[in-house]
Amino acid sequence: MHLDHTHDGPAAVSADAARPDGTRRALRIGLGGPVGSGKTATVAALCRLLRDRVSIAVVTNDIYTREDAAFLLRNAVLPPERIQAVETGACPHTAIRDDISANLEAVEDLEDAVGPLDLILVESGGDNLTATFSRGLVDAQIFVIDVAGGDDIPRKGGPGVSTADLLVVNKTDLAPYVGSDLDRMARDAAAQRGELPVVFTSLTGADGVAPVADWVRARLADWAV
Amino acid sequence: MSVTATARITAVADGRGSTALPLLESDGPLALRRTRSPETGYARVTVVGAMSAPLGGDRLAVEVRAEDGARLTVDAAAATVALPGAGPDAGPASYTVRLSAGEGAELRWLPEQLVSARGSALDMTTRADLAPTARLVLREEQVLGRHGEPTGRLSTRLTVRRAGRPLLDQHLAYGPGAPGGWDRAAVLGGHRAVGQLLLVDPAFDHGLPAPRLLGTTAALTPLAGPAVLVTALAPDARLLRAVLDEALEGLLKDSRALRRR
Amino acid sequence: MTTRAALLVLADGRFPAGGHAHSGGAEPAVKAGHIRNAQDLADFCLGRLHTTGLTVAALAAAAAHGLDPLALDEAADARTPSPALRAVARKLGRQLMRAARATWPSPALTALAEARPRGAHQPVVLGLTARAAGLEPADAAHCVAYETVSGPATAVVRLLSLDPFEATAVLARLAPALDEVAEQAAEAARHGIDALPAASAPLLDITAEAHAAWPVRLFAS
Fold first, then answer.
1. C chain contacts of residue B211, beta-carbon cutoff 8 Å
2. How far is CA B261 from the centre of its chain?
3. I need a labelling partner for B175 at 20 to 30 A (CA). Which of A40, B143, C84, C116 fits?
């Protein structure tokens, strides 16, 4: 116990990189994006690809309690004690941005129960283009859109598209069927995002989530130093 | 003319595996009779005279002590009906029950329903003080109005302390003059019979039953200490009793099983 | 000298202490058909205010008054027979504690956080928070009493798509009752822990247990 701690005891400052016992806490990455863009499928694929090397847990923020958590459990991507659902009172964006207290409880409970953890993925329930994660909750955020949602989404922008640390354009395999122009999406995204990275994924492929996983591995490497 | 009366019961272990009643004191409308207990080792007392009391302005009290190791059941021959007093100045009636149970004692307080008749006003207070190893079975039922009549004003406070610490504290208030909303969705939802069944048993330190619903308007809930409370709402007294009786039977079975372990 | 602005900060529905995910029993009441319109909401809120509301407002006032928070926490347990509601009260207490220590750090909050790491009852934490913010026991009581009705009103706007103007008008019409309950709670707190009210709502206790067991729900309670 450090009596001269600069902050006010356990968990008073949400974004602290250290746990109350002084050890470094897990890296927290948020995943947001519109309904049906493939957030939960991305989380599941990341867990499958990374879980042998990285100690992972997941927090879901559903509109209806436990739906996404139930999907992850059914698909056995992680043991059940590593998945926690936060109830959001029908407003996931409030729970990840405006009042993050329940999510902070969840990430800390997971570290206490199954820690030490390297990575906690915090998934938002499907919401609109304005939903972003508070910097008090996550260290980095991924925004997932898909080609079927319209190839004008990158052009329209919004905080998720323009400010997320990684933009994922998912379901590229569907582009020919829905008439979406991937080149145009890439150009528009670059215009909105400047230097911030964009990756294109198709989770139907064997290694479809690899570009996202590579980005997460790089964030983990940064976090460790 | 209003009545002030206090009836007293003290039960002690007689040292031969049974329970004696060195004090059994009726008073006014509160007539006590020692009755035969169906269970060996238990003394039983039945309150026989409370049928028409309390009237507005009456001050009634019952004090029951189960000393260390005593086993006592107190029940009643009939429902208690709160009635309006004589004249408009009678004021509310009060009915105070003080229960205590010592080390290893068991007290079962199982009165009949308390019926709040139209125009009546009654403040009922029940306080139980339990030693750490005491057991208590307590049932309270409030019926709002006799058949087809609106209820009087009824306030009931139930306070249970175990080893000097608060275990359960509830205050219910219904009827004309009670704070608003008592009849609606948060409190009674239009029901006319309300009941509580409390079982305090140190055996529950080894495992409390999980919370469960008993139909749609009753729930069995473990308290923060070694005790279980059943809270039930029902359209009438008979349906209420059926829920509480069934719950009591199950809970006594649970606690017996825990004690045998 | 009390600071009215601090009360606005603490009582603001956007104060990040987790309340937005809780309906205060309104979700099961809507599902059961007990709340269908603004009038039903008003009746529900009035009943909740005079029962649970009075009880928790007095606990908050008592904590703000300086009574022993651990004894108050125990008194809160005794007044909360539903384990689902005890769990909710402690969870919200822990969430409020986090926000409170970031906004009005105080040794009393730290001590309670260390004594109850899984969370103390929310009204007790709120009372201590009010004290740390330089507020009076009556302010704490007002804040908690208001939460007991504003939570259900906000939830019903989402659950029934009730007109938000109507829902806010319901709250405005409850103002005199809110003042009365808060004053009653603050007055009780002046007379010590044994004088605290214990007004309870049987149906809220029962439906809280039912709601906690629903497999799918919008609100945490």
1. 82-84, 209, 212
2. 29
3. C84
